[in-house]
Write a structure and sequence with these properties.
The chain contains 6 helices and 16 strands. It has about 290 residues and is α/β, with parallel strands linked by helices. The protein has one domain: Metallo-beta-lactamase, Chain A (4-Layer Sandwich). It has an 8-stranded mixed β-sheet with strand order 1-16-2-3-4-7-8-9, with helices on one face. A 6-stranded mixed β-sheet has the order 10-11-12-13-14-15. It is globular and about 45 Å long.
Length: about 290
Amino acid sequence: MKFSLNKAYLWNGTREVPARRPSQPVLPAAFEDSDDTRVYWLAGAGFLIHSRRTNILIDPVLSLHPDDPGKSEANLPLKVMLPLRAEDVPENCTVLYTHVDKDHLGPLTAKILAEKGIRMVGTLAVFEKLARLGVAPAQIDVLRIYEKMTVGEISVEATAADHPWQLKDMKRGGRPYRMGECCGFILTVPEGRMFFPGDTRLMEEHLRIENIDLLALDVSTDEFHINHVCGPVLANHFPEAALLPFHYGTYDCPDISAHVGEPEEVYPAIENAGQRGFIVSPGESFVLK
């Protein structure tokens, strides 16, 4: 696979964190038929993948808090403008959810998208959460880990995830997530294979995955995520993959490790990061050719 993106978006080779470029709005043309594949980071942990005539959203959190426009619907203070509103998502989309945390499955966003008749996909835990929000069960597809499905022209495979973050605060989080309640996704498009691991600790299963051309890299510092320690291990396992970081630069929550971290702190330990480590602003497109 070859990828096309302004080289200015490549990591600059230092640990210095420069001023970030502002968010770019995702325009309606992003969802129109094309002859290529594009990936948009939607801030936080969200992505939009457009390939030919198929549009997939992964973990979209696209609405603001109803009582405070300075916060996301997950009640987290925002450092950036969201590049896409739930109201502006067209009907020709499918949503993939990795798990039910509010910074991944935004309840307001889910309700707005459900009203458009948009198909939603996730684990059984995701199905149960969406159903409780009022989404019609017929509109939700359950995809268990290791299962595959086809969405338009994109092949989707659910991968294992290990994310029992509640162990560090069970009073707030409740019962820890069990195996099978969270997942990641491998998306196969004509240009290659893309791996979106979701929120997870590094697992042996991840190191058995092969032939990844684009890796969404979690650069947070949280011990229940692929983090500063494990991120380079996973990235070096895919030495040819382009790297798109996430879980950084979105929420002003210095005391929440899941939202703290920078790609410049992770890239120095990754092989050839100067040639394949990208840093895009929310809404900028990463084009695969």
